[in-house]
């Protein structure tokens, strides 16, 4: 049986998928996961889940992020004819960083 392993580096952070292990039961899977995935990097906890129990939702199943245009919420949407206020310049930089981060996921 294949078990998927999710690792949390520090308390309060998200668990991220780090691989899988092959084991006949849950206890062996937890032991294998600890040896294979818990000792290489700092680890706070591991989740070990049967592969058959992991559900997937794709973009074909549902429209992620909605379809409503809410660009008015972003400072980068608005342009002025005069000099930009310092808050707008800082916000544009933050929004650009956020958009670039979302593109990496």
UniProtKB/TrEMBL annotation:
<protein>
    <submittedName>
        <fullName>Phenylacetic acid degradation protein PaaB</fullName>
    </submittedName>
</protein>
<dbReference type="Pfam" id="PF06243">
    <property type="entry name" value="PaaB"/>
</dbReference>
<feature type="region of interest" description="Disordered">
    <location>
        <begin position="81"/>
        <end position="105"/>
    </location>
</feature>
<feature type="compositionally biased region" description="Acidic residues">
    <location>
        <begin position="87"/>
        <end position="97"/>
    </location>
</feature>
<dbReference type="InterPro" id="IPR009359">
    <property type="entry name" value="PaaB"/>
</dbReference>
<dbReference type="InterPro" id="IPR038693">
    <property type="entry name" value="PaaB_sf"/>
</dbReference>
């Amino acid at each position: 049986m294949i078990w998927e392993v999710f690792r949390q580096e520090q308390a309060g952070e998200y668990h991220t998928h780090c691989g899988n292990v092959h084991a006949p039961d849950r206890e062996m899977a937890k032991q294998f996961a600890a040896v294979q995935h818990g000792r290489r990097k700092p680890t706070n906890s591991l989740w070990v889940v049967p592969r058959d129990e992991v559900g997937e939702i794709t973009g074909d199943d549902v429209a992620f992020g909605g379809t409503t245009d809410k660009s008015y919420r972003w400072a980068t949407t608005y342009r002025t004819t005069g000099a930009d206020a310092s808050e707008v310049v800082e916000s544009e930089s933050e929004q650009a960083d956020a958009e670039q981060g979302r593109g990496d996921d």
